[in-house]
Amino acid sequence: MAAEAAPPFFAEAIVFLAATVVAVPIAKRLGLGSVVGYLAAGAVVGPHGLQLLGSGEDVLHVAELGVVLLLFVIGLELDPQKLWRMKRDIFGLGTAQVMLTGICLYAIARLYGFPYSTAIVAGFGLALSSTAFALQILQERGQLSSAYGQRAFGILLLQDIAIVPLLAMVAILAPSEEPMTAADIAGEIVIILGAIAAVVVTGRYLISPIFALLAASRAREVMLTAALLVALGSAGIMHSVGLSMALGAFLAGVLLAESSFRHTLEADIEPFRSLLMGLFFVAVGMSLDVYLVMDNWQVLAAGVVVVMLLKGVFLWGLSRGTGSSNSDALRIAVTLPQGGEFAFVLFTAAVGVRLLDYQTVNLLNAIVILTMLFTPLACLGLDALAARAKARGVENPSIETFEEATPTVLVVGFGRFGMVVAQFLTSEGLEITAIDNRPERIAYARKQGYRVYYGDATRADVLAAAGAGKAALVAMCIENEKVMAKAIDLIRDGFPNTLIFCRATDRAHSLDLARRGVDFQIRETFESSVVFGRAALEALGIPLDRIDQVEEDVRYRDEERLAMQMTDGLFAGSDKLHKVTPRKPAKDKEDIPAE
């Protein structure tokens, strides 16, 4: 009996997974980062290595979805107001970097005898940095939210936008018998603006109500499907009119940044993003022709040095000239000197219209890949300088690192209890993030002016996306004891240095929380009952000093009962419930000396 054929791409998937499982841990152990591991894995198993996988270009078409999802997740972390505040970095610093680097590389290419069209496409293609590569480095180092990380992201965002006019430039430079008329150009602009408007209107007014409806069904797989549909659908709309898919996904993410479902969307998409990003870098590594590198090593070495050095100098100079410290400018310079994935898109388009030949494109692609490979080494070099300066006890502001130190609190559960807790924290000016799993409660809290997000506290990825790892304290204000217990275990395992404060629903729950070792817990019914009892005694005419004695004694006996119940069970210490508080003798009698 003949064996049934394996599913399509089954063998390729096994090779890909095996290669990454081996290469990535080794690269990270060596301090090179996961990206270098993916590149190395692709180079080894690709058509120019062990030939276990076919062409990297075929894989790249699928893997580019990783870049799309990456930009969607980044967009979720930026609200429109924050994006507007970055306009100087995006359109000022980013534009200056692309123009200056592109013009200088064009001049160098012309100096070495390359034709006009080849030089301009190569120069501006190499001026673009890798959004996927640089953001992966920043995220691995936890520095995307730092001052220099935000400026670097602004530059990368402009470069993603710049691919649109650069592709138009290729079309203009291409030999054509039928040039575009003014009416054709106007029609293209109208179509592009219509696509952008469709994404904006859908993201602004339709997506949140749809997600609220899906959340009420409590079907996680449907929420996951909807999240992928939003990211890929917006990318598809932009791609259909000739714009960057990644740019469309980013725009959709920005429009959902203020949605109450932001953290859940991020957590749902993260596994797909990580897997596809890994596949993307493997595909890039597969495209590296080792034999081409060996045959043209002098040209490629010169190209890598020129591109990285020129981009690094411009990035440093422009960053310093626009207000960055020397430390931040250096870190921007060593994070963004590589070529980018959009260079592959631009060079492929140039080949299609016969502006570049295959030999030239292969050399340019090799330069891009090699600059990616050497970027983590540049980062390690700067880190080594910082470590050496620190070991000498030298305060060197040119190589110091940026560390964020703003205390934040994550409030889990935003009912009546959680809202009062949040009011205390915000009254002190502390920054809070709140999550809840009931859409109607979220809607009510948002009407009260609180920014509350949809999230399941029993999911570690949602807690991480909501900021549990950065929070100084997590306030567990939920009613469900089982949900709270699982959330506490997840926080203790994933974020052991975070303080955990809990709301206990009753005495048994309080004992359970004590056994779990939370940092603070309080029975909401006990405290309200104490206030109630004081008011009752006061209404019955009991003096205030006697009421204080009773409260102190009740609290003391309650602590004794809790200690006994921890070891002897819930009914231990019941006799302490029925004692009368002893009356303290008056001070004037105590002060009379004995005869």
Automatic annotation (TrEMBL):
<dbReference type="Pfam" id="PF00999">
    <property type="entry name" value="Na_H_Exchanger"/>
</dbReference>
<feature type="domain" description="RCK N-terminal">
    <location>
        <begin position="406"/>
        <end position="522"/>
    </location>
</feature>
<dbReference type="InterPro" id="IPR003148">
    <property type="entry name" value="RCK_N"/>
</dbReference>
<keyword id="KW-1133">Transmembrane helix</keyword>
<feature type="transmembrane region" description="Helical">
    <location>
        <begin position="273"/>
        <end position="293"/>
    </location>
</feature>
<feature type="transmembrane region" description="Helical">
    <location>
        <begin position="363"/>
        <end position="382"/>
    </location>
</feature>
<dbReference type="InterPro" id="IPR038770">
    <property type="entry name" value="Na+/solute_symporter_sf"/>
</dbReference>
<feature type="compositionally biased region" description="Basic and acidic residues">
    <location>
        <begin position="585"/>
        <end position="595"/>
    </location>
</feature>
<keyword id="KW-0812">Transmembrane</keyword>
<feature type="transmembrane region" description="Helical">
    <location>
        <begin position="299"/>
        <end position="318"/>
    </location>
</feature>
<dbReference type="InterPro" id="IPR004771">
    <property type="entry name" value="K/H_exchanger"/>
</dbReference>
<feature type="transmembrane region" description="Helical">
    <location>
        <begin position="185"/>
        <end position="207"/>
    </location>
</feature>
<feature type="transmembrane region" description="Helical">
    <location>
        <begin position="155"/>
        <end position="173"/>
    </location>
</feature>
<keyword id="KW-0813">Transport</keyword>
<dbReference type="Pfam" id="PF02254">
    <property type="entry name" value="TrkA_N"/>
</dbReference>
<keyword id="KW-0633">Potassium transport</keyword>
<feature type="transmembrane region" description="Helical">
    <location>
        <begin position="6"/>
        <end position="27"/>
    </location>
</feature>
<feature type="transmembrane region" description="Helical">
    <location>
        <begin position="34"/>
        <end position="53"/>
    </location>
</feature>
<keyword id="KW-0472">Membrane</keyword>
<feature type="transmembrane region" description="Helical">
    <location>
        <begin position="90"/>
        <end position="108"/>
    </location>
</feature>
<dbReference type="InterPro" id="IPR036291">
    <property type="entry name" value="NAD(P)-bd_dom_sf"/>
</dbReference>
<keyword id="KW-0050">Antiport</keyword>
<feature type="region of interest" description="Disordered">
    <location>
        <begin position="573"/>
        <end position="595"/>
    </location>
</feature>
<dbReference type="InterPro" id="IPR006153">
    <property type="entry name" value="Cation/H_exchanger_TM"/>
</dbReference>
<feature type="transmembrane region" description="Helical">
    <location>
        <begin position="59"/>
        <end position="78"/>
    </location>
</feature>
<feature type="transmembrane region" description="Helical">
    <location>
        <begin position="114"/>
        <end position="135"/>
    </location>
</feature>
<keyword id="KW-0406">Ion transport</keyword>
<keyword id="KW-0630">Potassium</keyword>
<comment type="similarity">
    <text>Belongs to the monovalent cation:proton antiporter 2 (CPA2) transporter (TC 2.A.37) family.</text>
</comment>
<protein>
    <submittedName>
        <fullName>Monovalent cation:proton antiporter-2 (CPA2) family protein</fullName>
    </submittedName>
</protein>
<feature type="transmembrane region" description="Helical">
    <location>
        <begin position="330"/>
        <end position="351"/>
    </location>
</feature>
